[in-house]
Amino acid sequence: MTTPTAVVHRDSSALAKATAARIVTRLVDAQSAQGSASIVLTGGGIGIAVLTELARAPARDALDWRHLDVWWGDERFLPAGDSERNETQARAALLDHVGVAPERVHPMPASDGRDGADPVYAAERYAAELARAAQPESHAPVPAFDVCLLGIGPDAHVASLFPEQPALYEDGRSVVGVRGAPKPPPTRLSLTFPAIRAAREVWLLASGESKADAVRLALSGAGPTQVPAAGAYGRSRTLFLLDADAAARLPPGFTAPGQM
Ligand SMILES: O=C1O[C@H](COP(=O)(O)O)[C@@H](O)[C@H](O)[C@H]1O
């Protein structure tokens, strides 16, 4: 487990722009070292804003988009192309505007796909796809993602791991089908904690005052069953990337708002 670091930006626009720049730097470094890179995308307001800024950033051309694997941390289990799908939003914000190799973009299955409407089968298929991409050095049935982006909900959920739900206890499977999620739509797919923790770096994004309590609890040693964001960490680095409103109630010892 890596100790989290908090980085605070003045507002959501600065947070989105700075995170986009940070992604370019991190993935360019990974491509220099390994020849290719991988990222896990998140949905949600700030998650998609970051992708929009990445598409606009002149520095994006420093990345070799053809040698990037793109995965998702969770998905709303809806028909392909539904505007509420995290995939649909990520394509519109970023992936349709850069030269990603289609075979290296790995969306989670849709509810009208070949698995049918049962999220359990869809989760199994995504887990198998991840396992095929796993390298020996990842020591897990998923790749050692270079960056795993996760939004934080007001209830401290990350990916589609919601407080007190059974998916939080999963320690065998890398992907689960989620039913009865408190945030619509109720049926979702999600990486589990073991899959998230296989990432080299986990970056948790939060913007807005409605996230301030979730951020405070996650950084205060709360348990992941009540505060899922507290259970998401990377092997080498865990970053909380925040705007000043989300950082308004940081616990002692973390960067105070206004320092960036
Ligand atoms: O539904 C979801 O919500 C979370 C957080 O979204 P936000 O709009 O409150 O930032 C997101 O991380 C997740 O990927 C998504 O499916």
TrEMBL record:
Enzyme Commission code: 3.1.1.31
Domain of life: Bacteria
EC main group: hydrolase
Reaction catalyzed: 6-phospho-D-glucono-1,5-lactone + H2O = 6-phospho-D-gluconate + H(+)
Keyword hit for Acyltransferase: no
Keyword tags: Hydrolase
Residues covered by the Glucosamine/galactosamine-6-phosphate isomerase domain: 11-235
One of the protein's GO biological processes: carbohydrate metabolic process
Coiled-coil zones: none
InterPro entries per record: 6-phosphogluconolactonase_DevB (IPR005900), 6PGL (IPR039104), Glc/Gal-6P_isomerase (IPR006148), NagB/RpiA_transferase-like (IPR037171)
GO molecular-function term, one example from the UniProt record: 6-phosphogluconolactonase activity
Pathway it works in: Carbohydrate degradation; pentose phosphate pathway; D-ribulose 5-phosphate from D-glucose 6-phosphate (oxidative stage): step 2/3
Xref: PANTHER family: 6-PHOSPHOGLUCONOLACTONASE
Assigned protein family: Belongs to the glucosamine/galactosamine-6-phosphate isomerase family. 6-phosphogluconolactonase subfamily.
Biological function: Hydrolysis of 6-phosphogluconolactone to 6-phosphogluconate.
Name of the protein described by the UniProt record: 6-phosphogluconolactonase
Lineage: Bacteria, Bacillati, Actinomycetota, Actinomycetes, Streptosporangiales
